[in-house]
Structure formats: structure tokens, C-alpha cells
């Protein structure tokens, strides 16, 4: 269930002073009373929707309304009733909706059309709210209208429950957790502005859109303890200021400002934490990721999710192969094991003891080498021969290129990662080259890193399968080793034995603080992230 709500408020000084919450009476707002398949008191049920009682998917008490939308003609999809209101009083209306497929969205109607639901937020409840102050005593229509979106197949069900305020025993709209206020001052094109607050899993739990121009709005959001991100978006790509007006936004919690801005292009994202629980720990550390980065993945799974992740992380800014040395200098230091600021080499690092040797950044770069401990170089964990050699941007993509001992790197060559039965070479930290164990379901030579770093390499491979989804299907036959690992598709990408092994490595070695820090550094270096470090759950949602 969504913990957040939003309220569209057109505020003036007079309203801010005079507005006090009042009670209207939405009859049967909890959809508990029915006559056949008709909810009592809901007098307008258009021909483009069929309404029935649901006792399966409910959000409050014993039943909800299952609204089956059967037309794309929006004027035939209203569910309404009439409510009496008094001049000068403020009424806080809200309703909970539950989307099943994500191709229909609901719009709150309170004496006119108000905010929309987020149709991409499927299989969970969300709340649409609107605060309304009439200028005269009158009877108004209150309810919902349903809008078809791209992908609508002519038949889709949306569940509706807990229309407030009502006298059915439904929960009140008060906030017993953290009450935040998002103040929006729209520019000359207010309809271009939208926002979403995501939780630590990247799911949108409060959102708003459909704003008027040059207007101030105060959106009230109720959140529990946890990590969140606020993402402000402009559909045209010119922000809220200052070429087309003087728009701005700010998010406050009491007297504390959590986020603010005005001048940006398409999106502006800020992370914040409420209470003592982080809710965003993916493996023992703090993740600085603005989770709004993944907002368009909401409701997706399988290869559709993978493709959307590709759309998010593609077109990164390649810095060139030589710039990787600078990246290692700033972002490949040992701050996690010996904490001695040496280069962290996953082929020589001993997590539970003293390293046999260490490398000083810059001065110990390769160079030539004849044995271990001579120098460190740039290891393509996904060998460059597999994608055709020194081809950009793969050749300089730091998400899969690690600082490693040059000699061990050369021993690894372009052999697949795997699990070794009989080793022909073992590095000082226990990394092995040798014949594959029979349980791997692969016969051939493989290279096995130590357990401490297996998850790191697995997530790098899932990144490569996603970032290069548009071309990786053609790499299978570049080498014998790539043919053993890749299956020639752009969706699964890897042979089944590789998928099974990588999943095991991913689950056995969760994301560490070292990975989180490196992912953030890579983002700052080349402008994209590894989604499987930010959201490890994506792996099994896809593979």
C-alpha cells in the first residue's frame, strides 16, 4: 500500500488564512453497500465502465469497487455522486486506486477535473487527493474519470476504495508519520511540470501533474521512516526557470528544507531520509544514489525492465581508455580492507589477512611485467576480444574495467569466469585458472575470482548485458570464449550455465560498500550507473 498522498491546492493569501478542514458526506465512499452490482449512492456510472463488488482486492473494511473500463472514449467513463458543500470551508477529498495493467489512469473529479493517478504503479494501492474550497453553497459532483493510455486493449480493471471523507468508518486523511509539504510555483507552462517521490526500491508512492501555469500549489505528503527521492520533471526539457517564467519548487519537513530548485533541464532529483530507518541498505552500506534515476522502470519486469534500464544507462559519456588511470587514482583505493589507500586489486586483495604486495597509485601502473607484484593494469572483466577489440565505448567503460595485477590479468586472458576443479595457476589471494568443475555444466578452462568479489563481477556482467543490449547479440562468434559465454540473443544474452552461475554469485556475495562507492564514482566519471548495484532485486526480476 502507498504511504504517500498528494493534494492539489490553489493557494492565495486569503485561503491560507481562512481555510480550515471541513467534513462533506460522501455516501458509501467505502463501497460497502451494494444493490446487485451497483454501489449505492453512486448515481453516475457511465456506459464505458462496468462496476462490480470486489472482496478480494480491498484497501479498507470488507469490499471495494472493481471498475472494468471497456472504452477509450473518456467522456463515457465517469463514476460520480453529488455532495453538498458550504462556501468558505475547505474539504479534503481523497480516494485510493489500484491499477492492474498500467494502461488506464484515474483522474479525481471534485467540481472539475483534478489530479491523476500514476498508472505505472501497478498491483499496489495509491491515493489521489484534492483540497477544495467552494466560493458559494452548492452541490458538486465528486468521483473519478478513467483515461486510456498507450497499450490499452479495450478491457482493463481498476480497483477503487476509501473515498474520503465518508461516514463508512474509513480511515481519516490525517498523517500520523512525517508530514511534508511540496511547494510548487509553476512557470508559464505549468502543464509540463510533474513530480514523484520514490521509496528506496524506486517505487513511486506519491506524485502530481496536470498543473496550471503561474500558480502556487502546496502538496501534502505523508511518509514513514526511510530513504526517498524527489524527482521534479519538465516534459519539454527546459525546467521551471528562467526562460519561460520564474517557477520553483521546495520540499519542507517542518522548518527543514529537504530539496529545492528552479533551473534544470528535464529532471531534478534529490534524495532525503526520514527517521532513523534507512530502508535503502542493499548490502551493508549507504547508497548515495538518487533513486529517481530509475523512475521509468516502475511496474516493469522481465526483459521489458531490462530494455528500460538500457534506455536509462545508454549513451554514457565515454572518457577514453587513458582516462581510466585517473579514475583508478581517485576511486580504486583500498578504504575497505587494510584501509591503506593502496590500489585495490581484486586479483591480489586478501580480505581476511595481509596482502602479499600492494600498489601505489600512478607510480605502479604497468609497464611491463614478468610475475605477480610487478605492476597493476586495466582488466576488462568482460574481455575486449569478446566485443571486437579496442571498440568504444565498451573499451573504456569503467563499470567492467578493474585495476588488477598485470601478470594475473594476463593469466586470466579472455577465458570465461567460472568455478575451477583443478587449478593450473593460483594467484597469491587464491584466484584460480584451470579446468571447470563438472557442476558448472561447462567443459573448458575458466578463471575463478575469490568469493569476496564474485558478486561484483556478476553484477558487472549483468550491466554489460544491459548497457549493450543493442549490440551484444552479435558478439557471440567473435572468439571461442565469447561463444562459450554468449548465446547470441539480446535478451537473456548469456548461455544458461553462465546465467545460473552469475545468479549464484550475485546472491552469495551481496552488494558491498566498496561497490556502492565505485558505482557512484563511475556515475560521476562517465554519467551512468550499474542498476544491479543500486537495485540488486532487478537481477532476478529479469533473469
Please explain how this structure is put together:
Keywords: Endonuclease, Hydrolase, Nuclease. This is Endonuclease. With 543 residues, the protein is an alpha+beta fold. 17% of the residues lie in helices and 30% in strands. It is built from ten helices and 29 strands. Strands 1, 2, 6, 7, 9, 12 and 14 form a seven-stranded mixed beta sheet that branches. Strands 5-8-13-10-11 form a five-stranded antiparallel beta sheet, with no helix packed on it. Helix 5 crosses helix 7. It is elongated. The two termini are 26 Å apart. The N terminus is likely disordered.
Q: Beta-strand percentage? A: 25-35%
Structural class, please?
A: alpha+beta
DSSP helix count? 10
Mean of pLDDT: 85
What brief labels describe this structure?
single chain; 543 residues; alpha+beta; seven-stranded mixed sheet; five-stranded antiparallel sheet; 10 helices; disordered N terminus
Provide the fold topology.
Elements: E1 7-8, H1 13-18, E2 21-22, E3 34-35, E4 38-39, E5 44-45, E6 49-54, E7 64-69, E8 78-85, E9 90-99, E10 104-110, E11 113-116, E12 125-132, E13 138-148, E14 156-164, E15 178-185, E16 193-198, E17 204-208, E18 216-223, E19 226-234, E20 241-242, E21 245-246, E22 248-253, E23 256-261, E24 267-274, H2 302-313, H3 324-331, E25 376-380, E26 401-405, H4 406-412, E27 420-426, E28 432-436, E29 445-448, H5 451-467, H6 480-485, H7 496-508, H8 513-526, H9 531-534, H10 537-542
Parallel strand pairs: 1-12, 2-9
Antiparallel strand pairs: 3-4, 5-8, 6-7, 7-14, 8-13, 9-12, 9-14, 10-11, 10-13, 15-18, 15-22, 16-17, 16-19, 19-24, 20-21, 22-23, 25-26, 27-28, 28-29
